[in-house]
Every structure is written in structure tokens, then in C-alpha cells.
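User: Some background: our group keeps a shared notebook of sequences we're curious about, and every so often someone picks one and asks for a predicted structure to add to the entry. Today it's my turn. The entry only has the sequence so far, pasted here. Could you supply the structure so I can complete it?
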Amino acid sequence: MATVLIVAPVFALIAAGYASVLFRFVSETAHKGISEFAFSIAIPALLFRTIVVSEFPDVSPWRMWGAYYGALAITWIAALALSACLRERREDREDGVVFAIGSVYGNIVMLGIPLVLSALGNEAAGPMSLILSVNTPLLWLCGILQMELVSRKRTGSVLSVIRPVLADLARNPLMLAIGFGVVWRFTGLGLNPVVDRTIELLAQAGSPAALIALGINLFRFEVKGEMLSVAAMSALKLLAMPAVAFVLAKLLGLPPVAAGVIVLFAAMPTGANAYIFAAQYQRLVNPVSGAVALGTLLAAVTLPVVVVIVAGVR
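Assistant: Of course. Here's the predicted structure to add to the notebook entry:
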């Protein structure tokens, strides 16, 4: 019953967002404004406040990164190998990179943050921030560099590839909120009660707004294209990656909350950023779109199981 109380409201809000477009209460473009509010204002406020006021367990960032990105790397390699078997033309190695991105790039912001906080509480904010602080730039950087390598189209230096990623990182509201939160926490000044209550009100809107935006956004994703590729990406993302993350978290001796964050983040379905990457290179656009839609639907079944496992470990 406790698992239902954690997971059901999350997917109910996603369904509400989808239904609001289906029944034309809002337009398909409404997700842009709601997403901008969620990811530029509300969720940064949530991250900033939880980092400043919460008590965090002492956990090594290297062990956290080792468990999560170790699982990601193993899944990435498996995806490249599986993609080579599925492709009709083995020379289309660019497809393999996009296939790998679709198999590891989880929806850890829109879906992951609300679910992890619901399941593990505010003490998960510290471990969660460690993953969030490097996830997007690292995955984009690895994807771009490998795409440049396999296509052999690089015309500039490695720095010319890295610079735009770093520039985006410096402007990212989530990264700024984490950075300012860490700095303010170290000052020991705390938050003025009025300021704290204002930020808290914004923070409370973050998770619901993100989930509603995800539901609206899902309306444009369709389960179509190469169904075998869609199923393979979904299986790697929802089953293989969290299983490997669970094993690595155990081997590295992570404390229960940190291990829970790692496993839950690894279990998130394919996110919209994977679709953006596919669209940018015009490779496997339909299969990745299908993985986003199908993965989110299947996550309604797989995530309760993961939550039960995480709760059992705790």
C-alpha cells in the first residue's frame, strides 16, 4: 500500500497532463510554458532549498558516480553491441550511438526528481544532486564525441565540441541552483523565514508542474518505427540498467538512501533529451520517440517493483 501511495500519484499527474491535451483543455504547446516554469523556477527552488536546509548522509561522490555511471557505461556498451546485431547495414554506426543514448538517457528530472523525493524524502537531495550535476553535460558530451568519432566528420578541435556543452551547463538553472545551494549551505547563514517560506511555496509547485508537463509532452510521442529497437531500448533502460546499478551500489557499499537514489534514477524510462539527440542527428527518430512513450507506460509497472526493492534495502 505504501508503494501505491508513492507511485500512483506520480503517474496520476502524468495521466492528468496527457488527458488535458486529449480533451483539449490545454493546447499541445502548453508543455513549453509549464516546463519552463518547472525547470527554470520551481525545481531549481526545490533543489536550492533542500540542499540548504536538509541533513545529508555522508557519502562519497566517487562511489555514487561509480555506481550510477558504471551502470550507464555497461548498458551503453551492451546497447552498442545489440544495435550492431539489429542494424541491417553494419556501416551505419551513427545509429548505434543514438540507440545507446536512447537506452541510457533516463528521465531523471521530470519523473526522477518527484519520484525519488516521494520515495526517499528530502535526505535524498544530496545524493540526487551529485548525479544531476554531471548527468546532462556528461551524456551530451559522450554522445557528441562518439558521434563525431564514428562519422569521422570532425572539422575542429575537441575543445570546439566541448565548449557549447560547457556553455549550456553554465546557464542551466538546475546546475545553478545546485551550485548556489552548496555555496549558501557552506556559509552557514541558513534562510530567513520569509525567504524560506517563499522558496518553499515555489518548490512545492515543482514536482506537480514537471509531471503535468511530462504528460502533456507525451502526447506528441508515438510508439512507432522499428518495434524491435523500441522494445530493446526499453528493456535495457527499464531492466538492465537498474539491475546493474543495484549490483554496483551493493559492491561499492553505498548507504541505503544513496543506493536508492542510484537504483531509482537508473530505472527511469527514456527521457525527451534522448529524442532531442536523435532529432539533432536525424537518426532513429521514430524508434527513440517510441522508446520515450512505451518506456513511460511500462514504467508504471516496473517502477513500483523498484520502489519495493529500494524500500526493502532500506
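Suggested note for the entry: The chain has 13 helices and no strands. The chain has a mean pLDDT of 85.
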